[in-house]
């Protein structure tokens, strides 16, 4: 079972992602902010991450940079309601696999994870 790290400061988003990804056959590790996310990344060795951008403390962009500094090929999917503040191109150039806007279409999450893992459900 593939492990997915979900980092979002909104409990309802974490719950939605947890329920959906669990139904898709993934083990879900949840984190409430970037620092918690980095600690869980180091502790649990997930195979991909879905990160919010706007979070207190360490934001998703900083977390992405820390993760990709450790593993340049690690699959990161960014989700945010505030993408207008950021450059999608910068995220993609930094190694992020996908940048999705909230409210996120869960089918896009599934499609991106299938592309990352080379699977079809």
Account of the 3D structure:
With about 120 residues, this protein is α/β, with parallel strands linked by helices. It has a single domain, classed as Response regulator (Rossmann fold), CATH 3.40.50.2300. The protein has helices spanning about 10-25, 35-45, 60-70, 90-95, 105-115, and strands at about 5, 25-30, 50, 75-80, 100. It has a 5-stranded parallel beta sheet, sandwiched between helices. The chain is globular, with a radius of gyration of 13 Å. The model has no long low-confidence stretch (mean pLDDT about 90).
Write the layout of secondary structure elements.
Elements: E1 3-7, H1 11-23, E2 27-31, H2 34-44, E3 48-52, H3 60-70, E4 76-80, H4 88-94, E5 98-101, H5 106-117
Parallel strand pairs: 1-2, 1-3, 3-4, 4-5
Please summarize what this structure is.
This protein has 121 residues and is α/β, with parallel strands linked by helices. The chain is 45% helix and 20% strand.
Q: Into which percent range does the helicity of residues fall?
A: 40-55%
User: Which value, in Å, is the CA radius of gyration?
Assistant: 13 Å
SSE succession: EHEHEHEHEH
Percent in strands: 15-25%
Work out the helix count.
5
CATH homology superfamily name: Response regulator
